[in-house]
Amino acid sequence: MRIQVDQDKCCGSGMCVLAAPDVFDQREEDGIVELLDAKPPQTLWPDIREAAAGCPSWAIEVDET
Amino acid sequence: MTAAGPSPASPAGTPTTAHPEPSSDPGTSGGACPYSAHAETSAAPLPETLPNAAPRGACPFDPPPVYQQARREQPVIRTKLWDGSSCWMVTRHDDIRRTLRDDRFSSDSNRPGFPFLTAGRKALTTDNPTFIRMDDPEHARLRRMLTADFMIRKVESMRPQVQELADDLLDAMVKGRQEADFVADFALPLPSVVICLLLGVPYSEHDFFQRCSSIMLRTESTPAQVTAAQDELHAYMAELTRTKRRNPDDGILSRLAERDELSDDDISRMGRLLLVAGHETTANMTALSTLALLRNPRELERMRAAGPEEAKAAVEELLRYLTIIQSGVSRVATEDVAVGDTVIRKGEGVLCMINAANRDEDVFPDADRLDLARPGSRRHLAFGFGVHQCLGQPLARLELQVALTTVLRRLPDLRLAIPFEDVRFRTDMLIYGVHSLPVAW
Ligand code: SF4
């Protein structure tokens, strides 16, 4: 799995941090998403899928191929 | 416009069922709402155009039955607004997520066709709009000046302080008394003190700004009343901003004032938005949640026994089940867009009914049941969706977690002090909840 985040789209909701705190964080200065781990272990995949689906601004892209 | 005057559309609407008498059983039967009327479906066909706001059914925690019926039978439907005009109403979870995440639906209240919920809202938002009534990039520019203050880590660091406040308020509420109004003595002051601290607004002025926000949120307020209340609050905030320029502190208003690109008016608008949104919403969720738990003893015991993680999940379920924004989230199409099987034309308004979406059986099985351990309740849309999704949601979550666990832990005999049938629900306000909640312990 590969993850990409689009910081221009992100509205700083923090939903992804709730869903997968080991993979997503928010930038100190403006609360915008920061990717902590672009190739996370498989155990975290369900949480990451939830984060991507729940992102209100479609800023998280997950490639599972 | 087919009607003039402030209240053309009588709520004569379409009650779809005869409302059964509320049961006086306080809900001893497991986790379900004591009303047995959830299956309040109707054989009556949906009317072509739904009223807004539609009459509520027997259970005051449920969305109006006709919206539930629309979600099942005709999820994109016409609805009639207060001024006689009509727009689209969207009720399914998936359709609403798509709509609110689609930048072809605008939040700009100055665009023709934007659906206003009341005459007062129209007066408020066309003149002097805050960023919730703007589109990107202007919306994002302004919102991003505030996102750092409400990010998860920052808000989480406030937990001990919020806990202390909750304990102090409860101490004061119970001292020498056996009964109190839970709204006035706890549910309202807690978030109100917190947002005042964050903004740098003196809480001692709360009578004043609570009066203004009540007028602004009452559906029957006239445009003149609403405008006057907003102007008063705006002038107060602008004056406070000027004070902060002279004597800065570490509140949000002061920090906004340090930015060269914002005028006093800009800051006043942002402060006004945060102040009103920051206390009215959480206050009503706290009181309504407490009432819902008192009516569902099994869930109440679950909440009382909950550890920190269970309490977090429980709050998500309460947000889903209660959805205090009952009136719909407004957008206007800037192009022709298909929502489900319906094409919404450029310039047509849409109301996204997040209350109906949060009861969508396709997403939440047995959706009309309050189940604090429900898996996936976080998929609710109670904070909206899309780039306008509630900015203060981490703070709202924290306040609700602290408020509900503290009250239930400290007051093991908490109960309603009046018959449930006498509780006054906020059917006359743009944010749902209860006007007061007399409790004993
Ligand atoms: S969920 Fe989306 S919008 Fe929210 S912080 Fe994460 S990336 Fe940004």
From TrEMBL, chain A:
Any one Gene Ontology molecular-function term assigned to this protein's record: 3 iron, 4 sulfur cluster binding
Cofactor: [3Fe-4S] cluster
Keyword Metal-binding: yes
Gene3D superfamilies reported in the protein's UniProt record: 3.30.70.20
One Pfam family recorded for the sequence: Fer4_13
InterPro entries named among the record's database cross-references: 3Fe4S_ferredoxin, 4Fe4S_Fe-S-bd, Fe-S_cluster_ET
Keyword Nucleus attached: no
4Fe-4S ferredoxin-type domain: residues covered: 1-29
Key words, A-Z: 3Fe-4S, Electron transport, Iron, Iron-sulfur, Metal-binding, Transport
Function: Ferredoxins are iron-sulfur proteins that transfer electrons in a wide variety of metabolic reactions.
Protein name listed in UniProt: Ferredoxin
From TrEMBL, chain B:
Segments of this protein annotated with the region Disordered: 1-72
Keywords, sorted A to Z: Heme, Iron, Metal-binding, Monooxygenase, Oxidoreductase
Domain of life: Bacteria
A molecular-function term among this protein's GO annotations: oxidoreductase activity, acting on paired donors, with incorporation or reduction of molecular oxygen
Leader peptide range in chain numbering: none
SUPFAM superfamilies named in the record: Cytochrome P450
Compositional bias segments (type: Low complexity): 1-18
Protein family according to the UniProt entry: Belongs to the cytochrome P450 family.
PANTHER family: CYTOCHROME P450 YJIB-RELATED (PTHR46696:SF1), P450, PUTATIVE (EUROFUNG)-RELATED (PTHR46696)
UniProt name for this protein: Putative cytochrome P450
Protein's organism: Actinacidiphila reveromycinica
Organism phylogeny: Bacteria, Bacillati, Actinomycetota, Actinomycetes, Kitasatosporales
